[in-house]
Sequence to fold (279 residues):
Amino acid sequence: MTENYINVTFLNGSNEYIKDEYFEKVKFIMHVVTRIIISIGLPLTLMTIYALFSLVRKDHVAPIYVINLLISDLIQLCCMLIHETKQHESHTIVFYSYYCGLLTSVGFMVCVSLERYLIIAHPLWYRFKRTIKNSVVVSVVVWLIPPVFFLTVFRWFTFDVARSIFAIFLILPFPLFIFFLVGTLRALSASVSVPSEEKQRIVGILVLVLLIYTLLFLPITILFLNRNRSDRTLTDLALMFAKLSPLADLILYVFFRKASISKLFTTVNSQQNTSQLQA
Fold:
């Protein structure tokens, strides 16, 4: 009986050692991947922001939300960099700053999708509302929501409740992305003057935003909603997917070129004017 007890104890200890060794390897891989994301994402994001700033002209507001999206990505990358340097004395500030950037990123993804939807589905309304002032006001509101959330909700509720509320905030844009995509597809199907290349570009932006959100943000949202996070591997994967979002957002730059945006808006306006004359 004593021998059996020793064998069981030895096996359990061996299993714990194997488990700890496995998680150490996973932790090492996560550190390597995170540093690769930082080394690629930081310079490319800075270069892309600079390139998009050159597109901002009078009465040309399309890149503003994308610029803000990339700035929120820049905040996330900087927080990851500080965390990787083991600056534990600033852990709390880095934690809140990172998730503020994450929540802000989702907010500007909604703005990007909404803007594309309005250009196609409601061009006349958008024509009179597309001012730099309105875009700046919307951007300021999006930037203010995350810090206000953390300064209020995280002080008034327990951590588990606050985490669930945070997850609800993250999941609310999901039906909006689907609505914008479906609404834009319907409007484009009735449009005959918009070139097929432009249609593909518009749909590509909306599909890309939806894919980024679904693949990279939904896992961490489910993670926050699940209070019994016993599987550390799934937790690490969900956090790693969220860290990949700054790299995925860089792809949006391909779809935001001045010529394409100007051509698209001119085409939509000409189609609307022609319809009014015929009526």
The two ends are 95 Å apart (CA to CA).
